[in-house]
């Protein structure tokens, strides 16, 4: 059975799905500065890869899976000072996710899974709030494996665990695997590592990439990235999504 993409189906093809058995996946990213070497939609690229990998694993387990078009706009205040970053309020993000869940519930779908690759604190809070509100309103369940929490993050490599992972080796490897032509290779290879932990800076109250020690909007070691590592990371992200969904159903 193939993975279905909602945008490529007709309404009659959606009507004919066994919707009460169909799992829906929403990739969520951001339009946000990712160093001088990655495109602004890098989180969307990563989330879409995670969604596809997870969907393929679920289909292999006999599930019917429908992937929605990616949500590309969200809270991104950490990068707001960098040109091109587009940030909206977390309240808006929560409302959009809950409204999507309501629409999917009305059509009889079984579950909504969030394939999320954007780790801005306001954004993560917005997604967690959406899960709670959907539950309170008795909509279809929303599954959200938060990569910043145990046990998920421990499976994504040393750089991710360190917290120095925005546009570094972790994210750059995935974009190299998914969209190599979008990576500014000459710039990437020239970048020095920035080992400051963004996650620790957030805990210390820093509110921008610059204040956290990333004046060019990257953390980690992008020069150490590779497409081969990107393939492994996408597989790990897909496994995380699939396992979270299977635990719910």
| Residue-averaged pLDDT | 96
First and last CA, distance: 19 Å
Q: If classified by CATH, what would the architecture be?
A: 3-Layer(aba) Sandwich
Q: Report helical residue fraction.
A: 40-55%
Structural category:
alpha/beta
**Spatial order of the strands forming the largest sheet:** 1-3-2-4-5
CATH topology: Rossmann fold
> For the record, what is the CATH homologous superfamily label?
Creatininase
- Principal-axis shape equals globular
| β-sheet strand percentage | 5-15%
Number of strands: 5
Tally of structural domains = 1
Query: What is the number of helices?
Result: 9
CATH class reads Alpha Beta
pLDDT below 50 for ≥5 consecutive residues: which ranges? Answer: none
């Amino acid at each position: 059975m193939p993975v279905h993409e909602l945008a490529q189906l007709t309404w009659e093809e959606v009507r004919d799905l066994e919707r009460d058995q169909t799992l829906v996946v929403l990739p969520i990213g951001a339009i946000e500065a990712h160093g001088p070497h990655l495109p602004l939609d890098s989180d969307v690229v990563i989330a879409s890869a995670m969604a596809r990998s997870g969907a393929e694993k679920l289909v292999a387990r006999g599930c019917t899976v429908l992937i929605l078009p990616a949500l590309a706009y969200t809270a991104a205040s950490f990068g707001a000072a960098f040109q091109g970053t587009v940030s909206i309020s977390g309240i808006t993000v929560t409302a959009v996710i809950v409204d999507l869940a309501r629409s999917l519930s009305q059509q009889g779908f079984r579950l909504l899974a969030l394939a999320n690759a954007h780790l801005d604190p306001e954004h993560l809070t917005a997604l967690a709030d959406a899960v709670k509100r959907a539950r309170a309103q008795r909509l279809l369940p929303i599954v959200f494996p938060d990569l910043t929490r145990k046990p998920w993050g421990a499976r994504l490599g040393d750089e991710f665990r360190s917290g120095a992972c925005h546009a570094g080796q972790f994210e750059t490897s995935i974009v190299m695997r998914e969209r190599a032509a979008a990576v500014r290779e000459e710039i990437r290879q020239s970048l020095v590592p920035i080992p400051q932990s963004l996650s620790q800076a957030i805990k210390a109250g820093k509110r921008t990439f610059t204040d956290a020690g990333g004046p060019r909007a990257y953390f980690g070691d992008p020069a150490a990235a590779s497409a081969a590592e990107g393939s492994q990371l996408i597989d790990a992200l897909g496994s995380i999504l699939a396992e979270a969904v299977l635990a719910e159903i």
